[in-house]
Prior knowledge:
Blueprint: H1 2-44, H2 53-87, E1 95-98, H3 99-110, E2 118-121, E3 131-134, H4 136-152, E4 158-165, E5 169-176, H5 198-201, H6 209-219, E6 223-229, E7 233-241
Parallel strand pairs: 2-4
Antiparallel strand pairs: 1-3, 4-5, 5-7, 6-7
Amino acid sequence: MVERIQTMYLNQRRFVSDASHELRTPLTTISGNAEFLKKIWIAYNKPPYLVDKNEIEISVEALNDIVDETNRMRRLVNDLLTLARADAGQQIKKDVFEIKPIVESVVRKAQLLPQSVHFKVEDLSVLENLYIAGDQEYLQHLLFIFLDNAFKFTLEGLVEFKSAKTADDILFTISDSGIGMAMNEIPQIFERFYRADSSRGDTPGTGLGLSIAQWILDEHKGNVEIVSSPNKGTTVALRLPVYKGKQYYS
């Protein structure tokens, strides 16, 4: 018991330290750019009120940096809030609903993600009349996390989304032809703030998405299997249990 408490304490300290580090970077950028803009606009308010074209362009760049870093910090804070709720033992409230409209919504939104690859979606009719017990918003977020990762780490080629059903589960498979990763790194990718290597570290993100995905899966009694190879791509297989409380399953 003491050993477990010590481990939890150390993990919590590490999490707080990592979170502080991640928040410090956008705050520093925002503060620096805001201070720069303040100096420029103070100068503009003094005679002869001349506006230099270069300073205008630099001001616009500074404002863009502030907007980008603010959005990044907002995403990070939202992710931290989700994980804090998970750590506090919050359980996801579950309703029974048909899964097909949820998946269709995710696919439609995924098509709007920045991408330079072909997005192939297999026929979703296999999901008709399949129901699940869960939270619609969280399940959309779950699928979106893995699709977003597939696009972020695939510069050319294909991202493919497939659906299937078994006697007890709904299976979603997301495959890409991206940069992939070594198999020995896969167990660590669900750790908070973990970035697999330097090439993946250049890709924008909070490093918390997969930790949130794991919590959502756990809450829905689902599981994930990942197969990946450097420079050959990644395949993610998500399984969620079919709801059988009523005669919905066919």
